Amino acid sequence: EELRMSKPNNFDAQSTLCVLCGRTDDCPEKYGEKRTYVEYNLTVHYYCLLMSSGIWQRGEEDEGVDGFLITDIKKEVNRAAKLKCNICKKKGASIGCVAPKCKRSYHFPCGIQRECIFQFMEDFRSYCWEHRPVQKFMDKEPRGASQCTICLDLVEQVPEYTVLKSPCCKNAWFHRECLQYQALSAGIFFFRCTVCNNKDKFQKEMLRMGIHIPERDASWELEENAYQDLLHCYQHCDVKRCLCKKGRDYNEPDSKWEIKRCQYCGSRGTHLACSAMKSWEQNWECVECRSIFAKSGKYSKRKKRALATSEKTNGTACLLEEPPPKSPRQSSGSPRNFLLQSPKIMCQNLSPCSHLELPASNRVTMSLSPVMSNRNWSLTQKSLREQRREVCNILKELKVQVKTKTTRLNINAENIWSNALKGFRQRNFSPTNTIEVNFSNCKNRSNTSAASKHHFFQLLMLHLQNSSLFEGSSGKNLSLDIQAVEENLYFEAGKMIAVSLVHGGPSPGFFSKTLFDCLVYGPENVKPALEDVADVDVAQTIQMIKDANSLSSLQSTLQDCCEFLAAAGCLRPVTALCDKNMLVNDILIYHVIKRITLPLESFRQGLKTLGVLEKMQMHPDAFSSILCHKPERLSAETICDLFTIHCSSDVNKIKGAGFWMGYLQDVESGESVVTLEDILLFVTGSCYIPSIGFDPEPTIKFLHIRYPIGKRLLNCLELPVTKTYQQFKNKMELTIRNTLRVERE
């Protein structure tokens, strides 16, 4: 009858009756949002509509009233008009108790007053005051009063409608009203036990007991620009003498004028050129942080060492320290034309295409140093991709050796090296076993075993790169650490790299051309360059010999460094200026190659694990693409090509794929709160693309679901079908951001 009424001249939402309960109350916390649709002469409480027994959500979310079609609402009003409420005795009781043989009907507000239970989940069931679910209490449980952990007022520990007990904490009691307000504020992503922080078990019990948990973000997350200050990225050069002509605030990514922030505080910065840094991957500390660490005794400045004394280092202590963290970087925002190409779209019965040509991810790029070749050794991106595709196939051949028998590694991320070393040396460890990783210091991590393994290998490769086993700023060579040689650590490092490659970890990406050639062709066939010398004093000495422009200046230079030459076995009489070239070459060969003969041989033996070194020697160009070149940053095109889209017959394939590709473009251009690495992590549990690729290959399915789901065991991304792109983007942002945030917390 209400739907047929004529439109009033002064339509007032506050004074209009709800067509289902007949009340004018406007209390969103109790009855849901009161919505008025002038064009239909319709006002309804959202909860009244949601809990009505004879209506279903048959439309899309933007149709009718949140998917409830207007025609269906009219039918439900007519059906309820014949039913009398067992509480207020008035007509219009649209909600019925679902208990067998119970014929009670009531309005939603009446049910609240009579302490009925309404379950806001699955079939949206309702139970009357007689058949409502109750919480089980042990007879031995003490009775009395305790504090509600939300409002901090006293709450009686009795099984009443107004009191709820936590299912996961023995002594946690709440007022029902407090819990409901908390749920409405926190939303489905942040509503959890206030004592132990449990989410799944706590939410399941509260939903059973009639607490409504809205499927939206927390109220504090919905406030516009609430965290705007946190998004500010410090961009200012603070070194004493800034060399940039365009000023201290000028920042040009991927150039020498890119600003690098302090790795500890992040509140000071420097242009790469102003601090003589060759690449973004190098660490930098501001003066304030350096002084703090110096005073605390935890920071030791690396001393310059002469060749004769460089063999006295203690490498084990350095290896057991976790390298300092690096600030994450956003994916590059360069425009792409891949949207003009047709995506990989498949019907359900077709097999996915290969993604072997894909480069590795940006987040590994942050941590694994590139090789900055000084001898025209760089390759075009196209040839690099072809070679990486070849490596992927080779590594898959080697993975055939891996058996289903598992070896579990218990890892503490803060002691990654010592834990990894212990795991690789345990009696039952075999490179041919399937590796499972358990992070002992991350008990609440909701990752799969595969995700933990990806994270473990990423941390391990980062640690090796920064350990004392290697030296150099970008392209690294082996260092000489006598204690590490005695403890066989070079062998273990080579073994770990080989295992990482075959078991789906990242490639190191930091080998120098000289180190790679020594491994592949043998040290006797390699000619090192001055850039391979990491020791500053040694490099300066060699440069002085090289720059001598007369025989007298050359002899004078040699006289000044006779101890150095004697230690290198290069002390000999020089009778002509041209002799300096052979002398420089001999010094380089000694310092870069002969001096590290023992570490190199041990490292080579480790790389023979699973046949990796043999394949390197058979396919040198292919393996150099992953061992000596940093992975490409993730791009929208890379992610688009990585996934194969599967569509059922009732889904608009082209429209869904268009939304997906458009979203990737927005993420790449910085118009999103998530990154491309976040998307990859959400789906696969890995923030990088392994050199061996993903197994199984990543897929996308468009389904009639509310929010996207990342199934990491299957590397499958299930996406909701939406009518507009903005709906699609909002759902992606909300789910990915909050899922990853909860995992990190």
Layout of helices and strands:
Blueprint: H1 28-31, E1 34-37, E2 42-45, H2 46-51, H3 70-80, E3 95-96, E4 105-106, H4 108-113, E5 117-118, E6 126-127, E7 145-147, E8 154-156, E9 163-165, E10 173-175, H5 176-190, H6 200-208, H7 219-222, E11 259-261, E12 269-271, H8 287-296, H9 315-319, E13 345-347, H10 362-367, H11 381-399, E14 406-411, H12 416-425, E15 434-439, H13 449-466, E16 470-471, E17 477-478, H14 482-486, H15 489-502, H16 513-521, H17 536-547, H18 551-560, H19 562-568, H20 579-593, H21 597-607, H22 612-618, H23 620-627, H24 636-642, E18 644-647, H25 653-668, H26 676-684, E19 699-703, E20 709-711, E21 716-720, H27 725-744
Parallel strand pairs: 13-18, 14-15, 18-19, 19-21
Antiparallel strand pairs: 1-2, 3-4, 5-6, 7-8, 9-10, 11-12, 16-17, 20-21
Helix pairs in contact: 11-23, 13-15, 15-21, 22-23, 24-25, 26-27
